[in-house]
Amino acid sequence: MKTTWIEALPDLGLAFGETAWMVGWSFVLTVLLGTLAGVALRLTAPDGLTPNRWFYGIFGAVVNLARSLPFLILMIALLSFTRFVVGTAYGPTAAIVPLTVGAIPFFARVVEAALREVAPGKLEAAQVMGASTRQIVTKVLLPESLPGLIAGATLTLVTLIGYSTMAGAIGGGGVGDFAIRYGYQRFNTPVLLMAVVVLIVLVQVIQSLGDAVVRSLNHRR
Amino acid sequence: MIVVDHVTKTYATKTAEVRAVDDVSLTVEAGEIFGILGRSGAGKTTLLRCLNLLERPTSGTITIAGTDFAALSASELRRARQKIGMIFQHFNLLNARTVADNVAFPLEVAGVPKAERSTRVAELLELVGLTDRAGSYPSQLSGGQKQRVGIARALASHPTVLLCDEATSALDPATTEQILDLIKDINLKMGLTVVLITHESEVVRRICDSAVLMEDGRVVEQGHLIDLMRTPGSRLAELLLPINAAPTETGRVLTLSFAHDDADAPVLSHLVRDLGIDLNILGGSVEIVAGHKVGRLKVALTHPDSFEEHEVERYLAERGVAVSWA
Ligand SMILES: Nc1ncnc2c1ncn2[C@@H]1O[C@H](COP(=O)(O)OP(=O)(O)O)[C@@H](O)[C@H]1O
Ligand SMILES: [Mg+2]
Known about the structure:
The complex is a heterodimer.
Chain A: H1 5-44, H2 53-68, H3 71-77, H4 79-86, H5 92-116, H6 120-128, H7 133-144, H8 146-172, H9 174-184, H10 189-219
Chain B: E1 2-12, E2 17-28, E3 33-38, H1 44-51, E4 59-64, E5 67-68, H2 74-81, E6 84-88, H3 99-109, H4 114-128, H5 143-155, E7 161-165, H6 173-190, E8 193-198, H7 201-207, E9 210-215, E10 218-224, H8 225-230, H9 235-240, E11 252-258, H10 267-275, E12 279-289, E13 292-301, H11 309-318, E14 321-325
Parallel strand pairs in B: 3-8, 3-9, 6-7, 7-8
Antiparallel strand pairs in B: 1-2, 1-4, 4-5, 9-10, 11-13, 11-14, 12-13
The complex binds adenosine-5'-diphosphate and magnesium ion.
């Protein structure tokens, strides 16, 4: 007798909680570290405020390398690193490590591109008013590109949800793991569909919220 | 106030070396409005950017109020820059900030306490006539209003010098006049030294006391406007007060410059009567330049054998009229 979708609900709730846990943490870490990395890339670019050919070249290459690795491969490659950091390579908490490492390079490039959109004249205006590089970053670059940053963060969050289901495939837990257990291992299509619906709704809600924030920011500027 | 001494700025491009500014020397006196006029590509922006070290001159020195900016450390330079306001063709306001917060920016950067900031911002918005737009965002303002915000922001830290890079070139003629009048007003009220660059001779004619003409990175003419108007053959005079004279084949052509406040005195009719000369008026104009009424006039003296050239020159010179033949 197959599990009905009603019977699977508590299990799905648990899986959803695990997804929220690993995606939530990796999103917060990605935004913090990715913003730092993106700002560093923008500042040291040849046309940046503090150009540094070496840093930009090497750091940029590392970022590109990490971006070009498929997430599944990155996750496997990071197994021992994850074990070193978290103590185990399995479970939702362990999944935070590869998710964050995989998303940072992506978000860093998103940040760099958003910062690039700020007109150079605004930076010069700040410079001639005596602003330091740090003040230019916090008072000009980041606030002026906020709509682009939020759009990029929304995209990153959606991507993280996608990655998190892959993490589920190798024992990370969450909705991906749930879908594999019911849909793939037990051929329980109704329960699988339920997991699919949950994911679709989640992504839609996040995208709409992100779009709404961007719109309200653009509205008044 | 500002002394530019043999300043050259070159850029190395892939194909060649560009001499954007080529051995420029000039002096801007305290409290004057100094214009740098030239066509696009003449090197005006580069020269202006050298003044607050947005560009480092390749050679030569610049001192402002006795300070050589190139010799300052990074933090000293930041503090010195607060005493030099700058406004831009495209305003460069921050879209994420309201009008009031844009004006407060330089004060924030300088670490002025919040209460003091808002008093100063209110003062400045009053000065530029934007008190009622304090809470608006730049995107909600017209070009002229944006430039007013730019001016308020540039004045926030009580600068002694205001640099204007084509500040009115993105504005329509009526708004241009309002902004120029505001700059002149501030110059008079606060004794602010203003350096402005423009490709529009109208701007120089309307508010400048002195000007230089730039061409291919070089200063080709400079002086007080009122003196330039009296200088025979001055190109700045011709640019600021052009005479659209029809070419003529007959007679000896004479350009007369009246640069005093009785520029409309009947010198010409006296000339005709006293020296018994016949003349045709080819063209001319009378305008207010640097606060003085200045006229330039081109006439053709018919029957060249009926007068001595030096006699005409002396007669006019005695009456304060500068002359040049043709
Ligand atoms: N960063 C730069 N690199 C190379 N060439 C430049 C640069 N800035 C200006 N130039 C060149 O210097 C010359 C003067 O430019 P600019 O000072 O902007 O003139 P203007 O403001 O009078 O129009 C131009 O030929 C321009 O192409
Ligand atoms: Mg220019």
